[in-house]
Each structure stands twice: as structure tokens, then as C-alpha cells.
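ok so I'm stuck.
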Amino acid sequence: MVVISLARQLAEEHRLAQTALASRTAGHVLGSWRETVQPRRLPESTPGWLGESLDAIAASRARSRELATSYLRLHRALNTQTTLPFHEPEPASEVISLGELRQDFADLAEIDLDPASNDELEVTVEDDYDWPDEDLEALDAAARTSLVVTGPIHARQRLAEAERAAGAGRLDDAEFLDELDVLMRDADATTAAAADREVLRGGRDLLHRASAADPRTVGWARVTDADPCAWCAMLASRGAVYRSRDAAQLKGHAGRNAPPVDPEDLEKYHNLCHCQVVPIYSRTDWLPEQGEAFRELWDEATEGHTG
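replied:
not stuck anymore, here's the structure
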């Protein structure tokens, strides 16, 4: 059973749920590649794999978006005692309880929820807010490009290199067959990583655009997993990154050696990156704890250096 009483607990459960969703879809895309795609018949065998994979990504991306919507409504309620209206058309409601918001998130995250002491507390629903539209055409195009580049194109390039190295590319050449096996395993891994990223794009895009359109949002912070890459750790070390209109009055809050980070940089992700970004509503809001640890590492690494 999971307890979600604080913003930090919610942020971690949201990150874990998004990661699980993306990983399941990546596994499906990987399995389909192995079962369907043939290295010596790439033009004939990849279209079926691509269509099935894009359908799976689109379905999971929509679920990622729903999960992010539910997360954002509960996150805002925990921090401001107000929340956003339902994403889909629903009967107008002026208030909603924290318990209802928690249960909605738990259902989408597929977790069992322990009751919280303030489940009955009602928060105001601010109905003067319009959720941003989803650009399905752009999202579908990004997913197609990502899969094609990391899958068929990548495999075709590696195959051409193997054929040149083997001369005629004979099927009975043991080294050539080994190279085929290696390149196909490499391609299925890169396509799975791309699928993982494209699924998460649904929720990340929603969080970015919806929070940017929310006048209560003053900034954002990055939440990483336990072992982030150096780039993600640097972004997390920045702590809160504020809107440009707030930057002047908040200058110096992050410290003199803070790495320069633009708010748009927080929305940059690599394949197999499972970071999420959380909106900040005031300078007293909770910030991800790992950011402080990464900040200390940054200070140590940059001590005595400028620029």
C-alpha cells in the first residue's frame, strides 16, 4: 500500500508509474522487432513492425498524458489548496476532495493507496483554465522518425558495413552471421529506447504546456532517478528554475556557482531518461532532495573555476 500525503511522495510515484508504462511499451516494441524483422529482408519486414509499434506507442502515450494530468491536479492541490478542472468535459464542480484526486491518480498509476488523514479536505477547482490541445500530428511524426532512424536505418547502415567487411556477405560465413546477430540486437535495443522516450513524451508534453499556461506556476524543478547521467544531475542540481519574469527578483537564490540552466533545458531528455519535471508554485514549495546533493557535487567540481 502506498501513502501519498506529500508532494515528494507524489512526484516519486508519478515518476515510477511513467517509467513502468514506458518500459512495458519498450519491451513490446523490442519483442516485435525480434519476431518480425529480418536482417536480409529489411524493406519487406519492417513496415509491419513499424505500424504495430507506432500503434502501441500512441496508446501508451495517451495513457502517459492521462497520468500526467491526474498528477498535475493532485500536485497543485497539495501545494496550493486549489486545483485545475477535469481535463475531459465533466459536470462543473466548484470543489473536489483530496481523496478523490488521490484515488484518480492511484487508479491511473495502478497502485494500492492507503487512506490519508486529510482525504476529506476539499480544495477549490479553478474553472477559468483551458487545457492545452495535444498536437497529435507532431507527436506521431516524432515517434515515426525516432523509430525509423534507430531501427531500420540503423540496421541498414550496420548491415552495409558488415557486407563490405565480409566481401560478398555470404550467409554461410560464420563471422558475417555473428555480425548480423550483433547488429540486430543493437537495433532492437535502440528502437526500444526510442519507444520508451516517445511514450514519456505524452506526459512530459502535457506537464510542460499545462503548467506553463497556469498563472500560478512560477518555475520548475527536475526529478531524476537514483542514478542519473551527468547532464540530468546537472539540471537537477539547479533546483528551481524560474520563469523569466521572476528571474530578476529571485536572482541569487540558487547560489553564485549555480550551473546556467534555461527553463527550456529542463524539457530536454535523452533515450532511457526517466526524469520528470515538477511545477513550482512558490519559493517555499518542496524541491527534490537529490537536487541539493547534486548541487554539492557541482560546487566541488567547479570550485576555483568561473564561466
